[in-house]
Every structure is written in structure tokens, then in C-alpha cells.
Amino acid sequence: MFRIVRFDLLLKFVVLISIISAVGAYVLAEKMTGSDISIFKLTTLATSASAAIMFFILSPPISRAIWFLARLFKKGLYPDLNGVWVGQITTEDSKTFEVRAIIRQALLSTEIDMHGETVKSVTLETTPTKELNQNKLYYVYRSTPKNPSWGDYIGSTIFDIIEDGTSLTLSGRYYTDRKSVGRISIKRVSKSIEADVSYY
Prior knowledge:
Layout: E1 2-3, H1 7-33, H2 39-58, H3 60-73, E2 83-91, E3 96-105, E4 110-116, E5 119-131, E6 134-145, E7 153-163, E8 168-176, E9 181-190
Antiparallel strand pairs: 1-5, 2-3, 2-9, 3-4, 4-5, 5-6, 6-7, 7-8, 8-9
Helix pairs in contact: 1-2
């Protein structure tokens, strides 16, 4: 198992781009002003460039664009999961009910808001991984039932990510601290992350 985003490579990339940007800005400023600029100003410029580039690269719209471009060259790269998902949960006693979800994913974070008619869940932790060349998503969540007399509970799922060329499906078994188990399967119906998928 390994994480999809290699933090060491990301950090090296940001440092390299920051140095190139800072040196380029330093040389440009010297040529435009015609005077020598102190090393202190160069250091300040490099720090500012590094922070700006880090915020730029890690912002969700930019990271989605980077992800899209990278997948054009490497088809097996982990997919962009952003969007609206619809599917169903099957409980251990074979009852089914519809769920809707919205997934917001950036380079360093993935959030899933899952909604059913009687419960809604928020993300506690997600980890995109690859196991034996299979894309997976580890998902830990806290669910809050609509009925206020029922208590919150914690659950976890290991999603298999199934790509068939035109669509994406997440499917996996869930386990909760109420000792309940079942299966969840959801399919992406839109790439928008602005939709409202709540039932209540």
C-alpha cells in the first residue's frame, strides 16, 4: 500500500520551482533597476515565491488541472474523484436505501459528504492508495442519524475504485462501531462540487 501523492517529490518540486522563480525575479529586478540587490532581498523574494507557489499548486482548482494533465500522459494515475455520486447502501439484513455523496478532492485532502434519507456522514479521515495496482480509497466517517434520539456512530469503508472508461464507481463493505456491516456502492453522476446532495 502507498499514498498516491509522494510528499517528498511534491516538496522537491515546489522548492525547485521556488528557486527558479526567485532567481528569475532577482535577475529581472536587477536588470530593470540597474542596481545591485542585497542577498537579504533575494532570500525574502525566495521565501515569498515558495509560499505563493505552494498555495497556488495546492489550491483545489489548480490541483484538479494538474491531475487532469498528468492523466493525459499516464492513464493509470489515480483518478480525480471530485463530483456528485449516487448509489445505495445494502445492510446486513438485505435492506437497501439510496445515498448521495459529494466528494471534494485536492492533492493533499479528500472529503466525502454522504447523505441518506435518515442519516448523514462527515469525513474523519481518507487515504487514497494503490494495492496490487488497484486504486482504493480508505474512508473513516462519523454518521449522524436524522432522529435525534439515536446516537452518532463511527464507520469505515475500503472503497474499490472501478473505472470502465466512461464512468467511475466506488464500492466496498462498511463496518461501524455499532457492530453493523453492509455494502455501499456509489457512481459518479456529475463532476461538479457545488451541488447540494442533502436530503434534510
